[in-house]
Amino acid sequence: MTLDLKVDGQSEERAEAFAQGLLGTALDRPDGVLKVTGAAVYAADDVPEGCAYGMLVRAPGFGAIEVGNADEVRAMPGVLAVIRDKRMVRNAAQGTANAAPVQGVDSADYVGQPVALVVAESFEAARHAAQALQLRTDGGPLPVNPGDVETEGEPDTTGDLDAAMAEAPHRLDVTYTTPSMTSAPMEPHAAVAWWEGDALTVRSALQMLKYNRNELADSLGIDPAKVRLLAPYVGGGFGSKLGIAAEAVAAAIAAQDLGRPVRVVQHRRQVFETVTRRSETRQRLRLAADRTGKLSGIGQEAWVSNLPGEVFQEPVTQATAFAYGAVHRVIGERLERLHRPAAGSVRAPGEAVGVTILECAMDELANDIGIDPVELRLRNIPDTDPEGGIPFSSHMLAEALKTGARRFGWSDRAPKPRARREGEWWIGTGMSAAFRVNVMMEAEARIALSPEGAVVETDMTDIGTGTYAILTQIAGEALGLPAEKVEVRLGDTTYPPGSGSGGSWGAATTGNAVWLAAQEIRAELARRMECGEGELTLKDGTATCGNRRVALADLLDGATLEGHGHIEAGDAFSKVRQSTFGAHFAEVAVNDVTGEVRVRRMSGTFAAGRILNEKTARSQCHGGLTWGIGMALTEGMVHDRRDGHIVNRDLAEYHMAVNADVPPLDVHFLEERDPWAGPLMSKGIGELGICGAAAAVLNAIHHACGVRVRDLPATPDRVLAGLEE
Amino acid sequence: MNLSFTVNRRARTLDIDPRVSLLDALRDHLHLTGSKKGCDHGQCGACTVLVNGRRINSCLSLAVMHEGDEIVTVEGLSDGAPSPLQAAFVKHDGFQCGFCTPGQLCSATGMLDEIAEGWPSHASADLDGPYELTQAELSERMSGNLCRCSCYPGINAAIRETAGTGDAT
């Protein structure tokens, strides 16, 4: 039995009438105790008996690879093999690729490409040998810098933006740049692979197992049915673990060659190079507005890059398409094929940098016109999706802006920049709107209800997002069980295929699959109670219909009842525009002498349909705001102009926000149910918090000291250059 | 080389390659995999353990340098039930993915002792304590432990609650 649902229209609210009271609460993570005691098992933690250790070796340059001393390295103490196999992958697969990424080790397309694996009896021996392996490349210049090559693709054009700009009393035409950025999850990419006959098992750090299984099988040239992936705990992802990566394929090859388990963990510096980065962008923003700030034209053209052979193109403008109403439009990307490390999804691909720069431009326009930045947004909220003319499933931007402004105390703000000074410090405030497309994928889940409780199984992952918590709550709510009577099992491809974690779609997609599985069980329980499912109340392990109450254990009569749910997106995602919305506010201090910026407080108000777990959703938003601080002030990969290699490829030189960089964060959720988003009426929350967050900080810098930084990040040297003008 | 030391109050001996870091000795030789390797460079703090009561990055220290030392890892912070600090991390959601968490916990434990002993920090107004666990002191002293999930509000609230200085503000 399976309860299938293709989401073609609006769903009816059901959960509200359920009695357990678990959904939406701030339930502690069921996996919490395992994580705080060190008992949760991550990819590199469980080493089987007889395991060998592999270390990837990077290409030092471009072109054909020549190995100088492989025999000498093979003869080093403890070394088992130097493997250079054509099936090894150039870089991590793109999210949902479902097939092998570009493969091969004969030549390097970018500096840092993994082109060999050294395997030894110990990690120390493998590392030593990998460092001793001499690789030469025959080189030759390849394009690595933006502007070096012809571009692919053109933005979409509607109306006549040039004419609108010429006629408008207020116009803005500015160019911003954002650097390459990295996901940098705390857990480096790792895999332990072992074979039993022709069956392969790999414990790895992955976000989307059903796709990753096919990617690994395709890379190796074997049947996906012979591959089992395990990822019960994943130390962060942020897009970097969407696709199968170099270490997993190499570990599988080595384990087969040697006939024993092999563990390969990428060194942190390898993670920076072999895992997809967020593309650098150059963005030209054009805004045309009348005297009231009403937009007649909007232009956002972005230049982004990727390696040859990669289908991914940073979708910088995907939210701009529906963010604000304007008749005349030029919106889209141009792609440059550069031999920098591959680009791919990093938390909120598109909006993270696209909405940020759009919102910086909106701030510039508000400043030019002399109207309040919040008011400028309110005046340009479209009635329908400006692209397709379809309605929005819900539109919460106005409420987010108004509520956020009230929470932050925005009304106290001085209208002009450079109005407040405390000693050496300029103090200012800024804001930004937040937009993120809402996506549903396909997922299946299984629930087994026994007298002991419910067991939920899906190959979905919890990469820190709170999947264990929310699936516990969803099953518990629907089946009338307290959290401790629900066990959620994730991260194993022997379970039904979930959606995977990415694109903020995991909670709503896989959550709805669990919900459907529970509905199937509810229907059977109602049948046994001889009442309609709608009349059935389940709470604390009892079933009630009218004046009858029966313990679930008695209804089950010692047996287990199974439910299977299957959900997929249907017409509900084309009939209406689905998005999440929010508003960011920030207060900064800018040092007049050094150009240093300190964020003093931040506030985010968000609408994402039903919030499934108030605690884990809040933590996701804390993450988004903090990434916004990093994007605004410190984060950026530096590519060597000669060969494109990443110069600052470690955590000391790539500066993510640390504890002392993060001020008190206020996160508020608006009450919302989006009936178009599936039975749970919940939308993705994992990425919304970063969309535009950096703009609030950058706009606050301008309000504080009058300096408009258009090349991110706003490091002290850039701010100081503005202060000295 | 032979090595004898105490790990989580238990005497241990190892015959170990001198190149093995303290972190890898704990993880791969003693199977105490709570301590995590986030960078192997002393840059992230995920490997933080307590050595004779002081917090260190165990990836930056060779195992054989610890003859006779007393090591405490995240597994040694609790005795059966989670410690108050560990329970507070769960309550305040002081983690998401959980990978930096063992380091945060060991680091916080060491940090609270340092401040109690009057060690100054960059955030201190002077070099002659005592020091209060203000938010500035806490954040400064915990900034060697990166959390890419960015659970700093929860981490700070958990530490402050455990230290009896109230919720973070």
Automatic annotation (TrEMBL), chain A:
One MF annotation (Gene Ontology) recorded for this entry: oxidoreductase activity
Source species, domain of life: Bacteria
Domain called Aldehyde oxidase/xanthine dehydrogenase a/b hammerhead: residue spans: 37-141
UniProt region (Disordered), positions on chain: 137-156
InterPro entries (UniProt xref): Ald_Oxase/Xan_DH_a/b (IPR000674), Ald_Oxase/Xan_DH_a/b_sf (IPR036856), Ald_Oxase/xanthine_DH-like (IPR016208), AldOxase/xan_DH_MoCoBD1 (IPR008274), AldOxase/xan_DH_MoCoBD2 (IPR046867), AldOxase/xan_DH_Mopterin-bd_sf (IPR037165)
Protein's UniProt name: Xanthine dehydrogenase
Species for this entry: Roseivivax isoporae LMG 25204
Automatic annotation (TrEMBL), chain B:
Residue ranges of every copy of the 2Fe-2S ferredoxin-type domain listed in the record: 1-77
GO function term, MF aspect, one: metal ion binding
Keyword Iron: yes
CDD domains, per the entry: fer2
Pfam families, A to Z: Fer2, Fer2_2
Keywords associated with the record: 2Fe-2S, Iron, Iron-sulfur, Metal-binding, Oxidoreductase
PANTHER family on file: OXIDOREDUCTASE, IRON-SULPHUR BINDING SUBUNIT-RELATED-RELATED (PTHR45331)
Name of the protein this chain belongs to: (2Fe-2S)-binding protein
